[in-house]
Amino acid sequence: MCFLAAFHINGNMASRGKSETQKLRQQMEDQLDRLVVQLADLEECKAELDPEEYEEVRKDTVEQLNEFQSSLSRMTSGDMTLIDSFSAMQLAIQAAISQAFKTPEVIQMFAKKQPDQLREKLSQIERDHKISKLGLDSYTQQKVEILSALQKLGESLAAPEQSFLDVHASSLMKNFDQVTDETGSSQKVLEMARQGIHQ
Q1: Which of the 8 DSSP states describes residue 193?
Q2: What is the pLDDT of residues 55-81, one digit of tens each?
Q3: For the chain, how many structural domains are there in total?
Q4: How far apart are CA 53 and CA 184, in angstroms?
Q5: Do 82 and 21 touch, CB atoms closer than 8 A?
Q6: How far apart are CA 135 and CA 129, in angstroms?
Q7: Integer distance in angstroms from the first to the last C-alpha of the chain?
Q8: Alpha-carbon 70 to chain mean position
Q9: Where are the alpha helices (DSSP H) in the chain?
Q10: Which of the listed residues 59, 61, 73, 126 has the most CB atoms within 10 Å of its CB?
Q11: At how many degrees (to 10) do helices 104-111 and 136-152 cross?
Q12: What is the extent of the structural domain holding 159?
């Protein structure tokens, strides 16, 4: 009886821990969504702002992303379940900070580990490009982001997708890939982003 009672208590604690992790993850996703939308809004309004104002707001948003990244690192320190849960989110934050990724929807799907939705988005932009609804530059940028996100999430790319990525990846994307592949650490990417702000 005592064993069953202890088992029942442990089971409740485990499910409560799981529920707390899910709640925390949802809060983190909401905060990341807000910051990503803030970045997207800033890019849309760039023409209406004077350069100093744009840089100031962008710098402020990047600082908020840096703080978010630091708190995420502190929370996951030593907790393997949280590390696993938030690893894609940390990579997505790095991608947004370094400007390797600029499409809010792609950053959000990447952060939430949604390879199926990324594949759907890829099909959608392929269609939009074919019917001239999406320009070549925008199509190329989004396709590179999606393929790179899929790769970082451990999805295998078809040979034509890999060659598209190799040919079209921007220097920012290549730097992001190199830093995350070599170290898996956010520090170099954050440093690269800070340098980008001052250039």
Answers
A1: H
A2: 888 888 888 888 887 877 777 666 655
A3: 1
A4: 33
A5: yes
A6: 6
A7: 68
A8: 15
A9: 2-44, 51-76, 80-97, 104-111, 115-130, 136-152, 159-168, 171-182, 187-198
A10: 61
A11: 10
A12: 2-198
